[in-house]
Specification:
This is 7, 8-Dihydro-6-hydroxymethylpterin-pyrophosphokinase, HPPK. In the C-terminal section; belongs to the DHPS family. It comes from Artemisia annua. The protein has two domains: 3-214, 7,8-Dihydro-6-hydroxymethylpterin-pyrophosphokinase HPPK (Alpha-Beta Plaits), CATH 3.30.70; 225-504, Dihydropteroate synthase-like (TIM Barrel). 38% of the residues lie in helices and 18% in strands. It is built from 19 helices and 19 strands. The chain has helices at residues 3-6, 9-13, 17-20, 56-69, 107-120, 162-170, 179-186, 191-199, 249-261, 283-298, 315-324, 341-348, 375-392, 412-420, 422-430, 434-437, 449-455, 464-477, 487-504, and strands spanning 25-27, 36-38, 43-51, 72-77, 80-83, 94-103, 135-141, 146-147, 152-153, 210-216, 219-221, 228-234, 266-270, 307-311, 328-331, 352-355, 400-403, 442-443, 481-484. The strands form four sheets. The protein has an eight-stranded parallel β-sheet with strand order 17-16-15-14-13-12-19-18. Strands 3, 4, 5, 6, 7, 10 and 11 form a seven-stranded antiparallel β-sheet that branches. A hairpin with a 2-residue loop joins β10 and β11. α9 (249-261) packs across α10. The longest helix has 18 residues, at 375-392. The two termini are 16 Å apart.
Length: 508
Amino acid sequence: MSLFRKLLPSRLARSHVCASYRAPFSFFHSSPDTSIEVHSQEQEVVIALGSNVGDRLNNFNEALSQMKKSGIEITRHACLYETEPAYVTDQPLFLNSAVRAVTKLAPHELLSVLKKIEKEMGRTKGIRYGPRPIDLDILFYGKYRINSEILAVPHERIFERPFVMAPLVDLLGSDSENDTVICWHSFSKNGLFGAWEELGGESLIGKDGLRRVLPVGDRLWDWSKKTSVMGILNLTPDSFSDGGKFDSVGSAISRVKTMVSEGADIIDLGAQSTRPMATKISVEEELDRLIPVLEKILELPEIEGKMISIDTFYSEVASEAIKKGAHIVNDVSGGKLDSDMLRVVAGLNVPYITMHMRGDPSTMQNSENLKYDDVCKEVGDELYECVRAAELCGVPAWRMVLDPGIGFSKKTEDNLEILMGLKRFRSEIGRKSLGVSRAPLLIGPSRKRFLGDICGRSSAIERDAGTVAAVTSAVLGGANIVRVHNVRDNVDAVKLCDSMLDQVGRSC
């Protein structure tokens, strides 16, 4: 069933609020400088972003920063797309996205602010549809249709442009959350989901010059092409599986070389154990374990082209590791164990893996943290709240990676239900934000206790066969990244799963 059809007809029928709502506008003298004054509370708006000149991602970051300083409070971000140019095709590839925001600026005041940002960032008049360092367009302004000599809202060509419609739909949930969104749907005869489907919908992603990407370092990562394998390197004496095996720099470097040779795409460094009842160590001790190994890893020629993530819930550790050259922050707490984490990650401009966990490692398996009525729904809802908190701190959705936290605050049956229900887990998040639901999905079942309980393997290192089975289920269910100890065997499993998915056509 299409997302559009999931909207209750009775709710969509209420979209007459757009036409019947009398806009409290004051029209002044008609001229190119005509202004519209809105005498009301703040309005919800949608603004599209595009760039194909210079450092495109930095242009986005600068534009968002300037918007926030100008009275535009950003509340949601779409995914990030690299797209072929439209209309004038002899120019570089674009980055495109969109944001939802609230502002007290009147429509023409908002337009003036956006044009000022464009000009300050180096945009000149140039040719229509030609290259530009930044392009900022108002797609929607509250519930209003606006037509003046200098502004048309909704944007006049919105419904013919996949590079606009893809990020626009990302900003919505499959459940319409308010009358303003219902009004936006009414601007197209079949609703926004129907308009997107008429263009081709999700079948366009990865084709015809429309790639959904995540920025990592100086490159754009299209995670849909293959499932990525994240190799685990624990620099701890007390991790549940391999604690103490790699706590010297030499042994750690040797292990990294092996994982890379076996096909790891990402190396995940952890210097603090997060097993149940693990003893919490200080920032200083974690850094002392982590930084010498990280520095040596970054010197390895074979690490070229690989990604390095840092498994930490401390903002100071994350900040120092990224400054040294790591690429990704992997936070098992979703920002809940360090009040500065989300603000710090926002400033680092790196991908952020946010994981679901209730409590902390010492309390996560307490009876009160193991109560679920519907685990896929509740984990999806709780993880979405972590993402929302991160977004409001300035971490855009296009930098997010989701991890439902296999083995964290979960019973055996909960872990199995999540592994078997990844599509439903995504759909539960998609009810609130389609963009967030389309973020890369990481699953980490490796050698977890629930595999030992099921397979009768008390020793963690004996659980590799069960891990391969869990990874296989996860990849076929829609996982984009799998986090494992045994890289070699799981790389083989992932290759087979990817081949099967390519055979039938990937659905996500």
